[in-house]
Amino acid sequence: METTFDTIRRLAVDTLDVSEVALLRARTLREAGIDSLATLDLLGAIEAHYGIHISAEDLADLNSLRDFAAVVERLIAREAHRYEACHEIQYEARHEA
């Protein structure tokens, strides 16, 4: 099973035409040759792939692919929690009537 980091690395390779070796060796996006404009391209690909929105606040702290993966996992977990809470409320409302 592909991890979030693996998916983001694949999206970076496909979207930015950067080598996977460069991504694996680099500690930061900048070291991998990914500038701010390319980071925005990657951001769009990640948001489209996962169906999420990464805020400007979150984006300010993203320096590596691992940072992207951590933010994506946090946002997915938050959405899953909201989804479960919403369904729990709907379930309770149906059974109270």
Task: Please provide a written account of the structure.
The chain has 97 residues and is an all-alpha fold. It has a single domain (4-96), classed as Orthogonal Bundle (Non-ribosomal Peptide Synthetase Peptidyl Carrier Protein, Chain A). It is 72% helix and 0% strand. The chain contains 5 helices and no strands. α1 (4-16) crosses α5. The mean pLDDT is 87.
The number of strands is: 0
Instruction: Tell me which oligomeric state these chains represent.
Output: single chain
End-to-end separation in angstroms reads 43 Å
Poorly predicted spans: none
Instruction: Provide the CATH topology.
Output: Non-ribosomal Peptide Synthetase Peptidyl Carrier Protein, Chain A
Question: How many helix segments?
Answer: 5
Task: List key phrases describing it.
mainly alpha, 97 residues, Non-ribosomal Peptide Synthetase Peptidyl Carrier Protein, Chain A
Give a short synopsis of this structure.
The chain is mainly α and 97 residues long. It has a single domain, classed as Non-ribosomal Peptide Synthetase Peptidyl Carrier Protein, Chain A (Orthogonal Bundle).
Task: Give the helix/strand layout.
Blueprint: H1 4-16, H2 20-25, H3 36-50, H4 56-59, H5 65-96
Helix pairs in contact: 1-3, 1-5
